[in-house]
Automatic annotation (TrEMBL):
Gene3D superfamilies: 3.30.70.20. Keywords: Iron, Iron-sulfur, Metal-binding. It comes from Candidatus Abyssobacteria bacterium SURF_17. It comes from the Bacteria. This is 4Fe-4S dicluster domain-containing protein. The keyword Transit peptide does not apply. Residues 270-297, 298-327 form the 4Fe-4S ferredoxin-type domain. Pfam families: Fer4_7 (PF12838). The keyword Zinc does not apply.
Length: 351
């Protein structure tokens, strides 16, 4: 039944590896009953009664299993008025992230970190980033958007926070996973922001805590100071997360920094520009870039093909020689998560 569960996980855009090691990983997360049920669950949130009808099983039998799986970060749950909706989580973003979001350090999380690390280094990670449409996008630091430029609403990180009806904060699962392996870069971990229904799930199931808008704004400021890149769903509305990432530990940015697939993440609609007349060649900007886009010879130079438009380098330039400019060609994010999933599934031949 674990192979059937892998087949089900492969219906999601992110897919899943078909390896013995991955079966071992699934066995440490799902009991046999849970794996059997997981293999038959819908991939989009569906009313409990509909799930039970299609399985031919009673709610009293299925609901306790679903609840236990929701508490373990294997199944998503939300309420729509008084109706319970459930769906299987994808491997990424979903099952992987939730195993490390609590920041727990124990033999089980250490073993999981080893197994997930092997998964990230298997051929599956190459497939993860194989679609033209990316799952995530870089969001430029808002204070680095040049004045006088027309800004799309989805480019303002602060707008997502100010308009959110529910916000949660959890541990950065990527850096926590790397810490469990003794490999973390040591940058701040309390920086993963969740939004809306997903944030409610995170809080209700103990994966994170509810926070205010003021706290969320502080998280952004701390992250920028620490040199972390803002990353979000590649959608215009109803985002689920804003992550604050490093190029070394982050599974998503690792598509660029470790797998050398430059299109693993959508760039912001900005790119860096350098004023060679004022640059003092101090080199301070070079270390801020996670993507190796900056070099210093006579003056600083940027490789526009490597610059993802995060804005982090601008903060440290003592001569104010750096600024962001609009890219000439921009590709708008999908309108919402369902559209995003649909586009990636189509491109990967899953629809
Ligand atoms: S995606 Fe970024 S912030 Fe989110 S958990 Fe990974 S490294 Fe941390
Ligand atoms: S050069 Fe690097 S740090 Fe600067 S904006 Fe581009 S990606 Fe970000
Ligand atoms: S930080 Fe500014 S002055 Fe220093 S090398 Fe970079 S662009 Fe030039």
């Amino acid at each position: 039944m674990y192979q059937q569960l892998i087949d089900k996980l492969n219906q999601f855009p992110s897919g899943a590896p078909k390896t013995e090691q991955f079966v071992e990983l699934l066995k440490s997360l799902f009991t046999e009953d849970e794996a059997k049920l997981g293999a038959e669950l819908p991939i989009f949130p569906t009313p409990l009664a509909t799930i039970c009808d299609s399985l031919g099983r009673k709610e009293t039998e299925v609901k306790p299993l679903l609840e236990s799986m929701a508490n373990k970060g294997l199944v998503y749950h939300r309420k729509q008025e008084s109706t319970d909706l459930y769906s299987l989580f994808p491997l990424v973003p979903g099952i992987f992230e939730l195993q490390f979001m609590k920041g727990e350090v124990n033999p089980k999380t250490k073993r999981l970190a080893e197994l997930f690390d092997k998964m990230w280094h298997s051929g599956w990670a190459e497939d993860l980033f194989a679609s033209r449409t990316q799952m995530a996008r870089i969001v430029v630091m808002e204070k680095e958007i040049p004045s006088g430029v027309e800004v799309f609403p989805y480019e303002r990180v602060s707008k997502f926070i100010d308009e959110a009806d529910y916000l949660a904060l959890s541990v950065c699962y990527c850096r926590h996973e790397q810490e469990l392996l003794g490999k973390s870069c040591g940058r701040p971990k309390d920086v993963c922001l969740q939004f809306g229904p997903f944030a409610r799930y995170v809080v209700e199931r103990g994966f994170g805590r509810k926070i205010t808008k003021e706290e969320a704004h502080k998280v952004l400021a701390v992250s920028e100071e620490a040199g972390l890149v803002h990353l979000s769903d590649n959608t215009q509305k109803h985002i689920n997360f804003i992550c604050n990432c490093c190029g070394c530990c982050c599974g998503i940015l690792g598509g660029i920094t470790r797998l050398h697939k430059p299109h693993s993440v959508a760039t912001s609609h900005f790119v860096l520009e350098i004023d060679a007349d004022t640059c003092s060649a101090c080199g301070a900007c070079v270390d801020r870039c996670h993507f190796g886009a900056l070099t210093v010879n006579e003056v600083a130079e940027v490789d526009p093909d490597k610059c993802l438009g995060c804005g982090l380098c601008n903060m440290v330039c003592p001569t104010e020689s750096l600024k962001m400019r609009r890219r000439e060609e921009i590709l708008e994010p999908k309108r919402n998560f369902r559209e995003l999933m649909g586009a990636i599934m189509q491109e990967k031949g899953k629809l």
